[in-house]
Amino acid sequence: MKPAPVFDLSVIVVSYNNAPEITSCLCSIQAACGALRYETYVVDNASNDGCAELVAQNFPDITLIASPVNLGFAAGNNLAFAHVRGRYIALINPDARPAAESLAEAVAWMDEHAQIGLAGGQLLDEEGHNQPSARCFPSLLNDFLAISGLAAKFANNRFFGRFDRTWANPAEAAQVDWVPGAFAIIRHQALRQVGHFDERFFLYYEEVDLCRRLKRAGYQIWYQPQWQAVHIGGVSSRRVAGEHFNRHGSQLSLWRMRSTLLYYRKHHGWLIAKLDNLLEQIWHFARQCRNAWFSQRAQAKEKAQESTALRRLLQQAWGDTAGGQRSPPTPW
């Protein structure tokens, strides 16, 4: 039998080379928890910038778990899941700063809504602009709308803006498919029921997969804009040397492609995984041809070269994962 929770909330921060951001993140968590009984874990994924040492020196009340290797987001959180003692678990990215009392408000709200397994707050950039904070599950249609630019061009349209819900009023709470793991709260009982993160997802799609499993188990996923956090986004990914970084999505391209295949193969089978990979390859081939053949501008040449590189990465991702069947050895 599991011991009874002794805290209202367990907060987990998974860090990787986040020394510049970690202090403001942890200080904001203290203010966000208010009068809650809470505990905080920092799982440091083998940072080489002194992040773990900084936490150990300046935050003695926080439990530091220093991994000798980079485990990724899913396995890093799972490492802390084995120790948490809260009724709820909050996931906070190291480049996020929750607003004062936001986590205390989240716990109170979750207590009033027993059917909700996981919820996320509103993410804002440093200028106060809204970031995508609630999304629909990935699909071939949603991926096409995103990579074609139609989702961005017709962001206020309910059909074209469906994936990131850009048509919706960000000030209104809503039941959604999934929310980002940058600022989220999970019912511990629900997590025990469906299991921890799938560690095949080294980075990206792990929260999508978890939300899908929670919904299958009968729980709801909600977006609640009453809780806000400033979120820089993609900070750790930018510090990974030698990998293509997509500045529009603040993601490492190859890692995102691998996780996309793992997700589609797990939840939709080989055919959908293959079609999605081909869809993106065909799009980048068309983009490559258009920019290489019909424009002499230097910017167009750069876009053509980028599309060529991304097509190679898509092919590599298919091979690395055996068509979405396996995860490459960690760390990626």
UniProtKB/TrEMBL annotation:
Residues 10-116 form the Glycosyltransferase 2-like domain. It holds the Pfam family Glycos_transf_2. Gene3D superfamilies: Spore Coat Polysaccharide Biosynthesis Protein SpsA, Chain A (3.90.550.10). The keyword Lipoprotein does not apply. One of its GO terms (molecular function) is transferase activity. It comes from the Bacteria. Keywords: Transferase. PANTHER family: RHAMNOSYLTRANSFERASE WBBL (PTHR43179:SF7). This is Glycosyltransferase family 2 protein. It comes from Chitinibacter bivalviorum.
